[in-house]
Amino acid sequence: MEDGAAQFRKDVAVNPNDTEEAIWAFLCEAKTLGFDKARARILRVGKDPRGYMREAYALFDGTGSEAGAGTFLTIISQVDNMPIVPETT
User: Fold this and answer.
1) Hey, where are the domains in the chain?
2) Secondary structure letter of residue 78 according to DSSP
3) CA–CA distance, 83 with 78 (Å, rounded to integer)
4) How would you classify residue 65: left for phi > 0, otherwise alpha for psi between -120 and 50, otherwise beta?
5) pLDDT tens over the chain, length 89 residues
6) Nearest-angstrom CA–CA distance, 45 and 16
7) pTM score
8) Residue 9 — φ and ψ, nearest 5°?
9) What is the per-residue DSSP string for 11-46?
């Protein structure tokens, strides 16, 4: 998990608008540091052009709402073939 968090942090350093990588870094750190510490360290990113990713990020950084969660779920349910969990080979 520590290696994963480090890699995702590097990816955001290269692309500071990469919301998805920031969320993955948070998830890795939540596993090793605990949820509250990970939230305090969550990477700040620019405005992702994908509305559903902005909603997802808000849920993890603590600024999201129930309405935002509903919006996120509605949007992703309408996207064909969108994997919710990354596929493994």
Assistant:
1) 2-77
2) T
3) 12
4) beta
5) 889 899 999 999 999 988 999 999 999 999 999 999 999 999 999 988 888 888 889 988 988 877 777 776 776 666 655 555 544 55
6) 5
7) 0.74
8) -65, -40
9) HHHH-TT-HHHHHHHHHHHHHHH-HHHHHHTPPP--
